[in-house]
Amino acid sequence: MTPVLLSLAAACCWGVADFIGGLQSRRVAIPVVLATVEGTGLVLVLAVIAMTGEPFPQARTVLISLAGGVGGVMALGCFYRALSIGTMSIVAPISATGVALPVIVGVATGDSLSVLVSAGLAVTVVGVILASREAHEEEQRAAAGRLSVGLALLAAIGFGSYFVLSDAAADDSILWFLVLSRVIPVPALVAVAALLRVPRPPRESAVALVAAGTLDCGATGLYALANTKGALSIVSVVGSLYPVATVVLARVVLGERIRPLQRAGVVAALAGVAMIAGG
Question: pTM of the entire structure?
């Protein structure tokens, strides 16, 4: 497969996994959702390491991976909560704007902004503002919409931090980063679920969450493979379009409808993300 097709497959897998996780978060407690999705990925990557004999990374990579994992799962928790109470077509694109954080960190450490990235940042901000302008007649739904946007922005910051740390750790070992980033969150989430006496998910929900975890893990592998075969500037742009799958599924499966102004915001946010990734 070409790098573009690999990264497109990764984007589709990520988008579908997000939709499934968000949908199940409306039925199952967030700690259980996170533990199942992340736990599935942990088991799969450990199996790959057992087959490939990937050497254990350096101490620095271990520490970065552990920190990235904690931040990443907190971001994912905010994301799933936002998807469960808000409009998925709005939440998913806003959360994807976390791709801007590594750029901001780079500028703070001496990097220069290209014209494309600068324009992408501006377009993304405008897109988020427009997309978040929801209108509800009921105050309860309006409050839930506002909260979902706030959580999506927190998720974006968390995902951006995860991207920064994963970039540093993946240079040593992608597989071990994926394992080490889960070794603290998964047991902690299981303990929280047990402490709160959260009921186990129904069989169909458990199967769906395992599927989401498998898709999420597979997407990471496809994206990493795409990076080895093609230019990062192309692969990152295609891979950053993962919210499109979530938006399409929300429209087809849930029948979500958003106002024209918000639709323009969603398009602008996705375009801005692609511009930043391509810069």
Answer: 0.87
